[in-house]
Amino acid sequence: MRRQPKQARSQERVSQILNAAEALFIEQGYEQTTTRAIATRAQVPVGSLYQFFPDKAAILKALADRYMQQEYELFASLHAAVPEPMPLANYVDRVVEAFDHFMTHQPGYRAVFEQVLGLMTAGAIAEMDTYEARIVDDLADFLGRLGPGLDAAQRRAIALVVVESVGNLLWLSLKADAPLRARLIAETKRLMTHYLASYFGKTIGKAG
User: Fold this and answer.
1) How far is CA 171 from CA 75, 96, 136, 144, 163, in A?
2) What distance in Å separates the CA atoms of residue 184 and residue 170, rounded to the nearest whole number?
3) At how many degrees (to 10) do helices 8-28 and 35-42 cross?
4) Looking at the 3D structure of the chain, how many domains does it have?
5) Where would I find the HTH tetR-type domain in this sequence (predicted)?
6) Domain containing 89: what range?
7) Does an H or E element contain 17, and which?
8) Looking at the structure, do residues 33 and 70 belong to the same domain, yes or no?
9) Of 172, 160, 162, 73, nearest in space to 113 by CA
10) 132-185, pLDDT tens digit by residue?
11) Predicted structure pTM score
């Protein structure tokens, strides 16, 4: 962004622009959408749009950033505290279902990230991985509270395997038909349950 909105009115205007862009990317596709069309849909002068965003690609990146922030907040809410003792399979089911619901119930999620992967350079995408890195670090900390016998390097490696595996498999499932999608989600849960059980057993929580 050219500048970050600080006042409530500016923040509302940026939100209007992002919401309008997301809707148009879904309806018309990224390539067919113009910044002028985004400004018109958002009911803001095109000059106001350019005050915040230099071009359409910057709007796309801002949408991706917004989704990644929301994903991080979802992760944080699910891992705010070590759970009461529960079957590990229940924990895995809860987390995978929550992220699958998020990815499938955000209308522009797939449209935005398919464009991000198709248009942006590896370096630009890497700059957006800060939220994923925070999730990995926070999950490593969470796993440390579950299994204090694991050293920091091992916890981080486990967290990285979990985040990358679940994220990529859920993304893959978005492109599958309904029967295959259900199978992929079930296999993702099975994979993570057996993998984590090899470190933490079948029950996690305060007494785990």
Assistant:
1) 16, 12, 18, 27, 12
2) 8
3) 120
4) 2
5) 11-71
6) 63-204
7) helix 8-28
8) no
9) 172
10) 899 999 999 999 988 878 999 999 999 999 999 999 999 999 999 999 999 999
11) 0.87
The two three-digit tokens of residue 137, written as one number: 């670090």
SS3 204: strand
Task: Name the token pair of 144.
Answer: 């440390």
Alpha-carbon span 41 to 23, nearest angstrom: 9
Question: Per DSSP, what are the bridge partners of residue 86?
Answer: 204
Residue 11: count of CB within 10 angstroms of its CB: 12
pLDDT in tens, 108-142: 899 899 888 777 656 666 666 688 899 999 999 99
Q: Which pLDDT belongs to residue 152?
A: 93
CB 40 within 8 A of CB 90: no
Question: Could you give the angle at the alpha carbon of 125 between the alpha carbons of 3 and 169, nearest 5°?
Answer: 130
Tell me the residue ranges of DSSP E strands in the chain.
Answer: 86-87, 203-204
Q: Do 118 and 177 reside in the same domain of the chain?
A: yes
Split at pLDDT 50, 70, 90, the class of 188 is very high
Range with the lowest mean pLDDT among 70-79, 153-162, 186-195, 197-206?
Answer: 197-206
Domain of residue 9, CATH code: 1.10.10.60
Q: Contact, 203 vs 92, CB < 8 A?
A: no
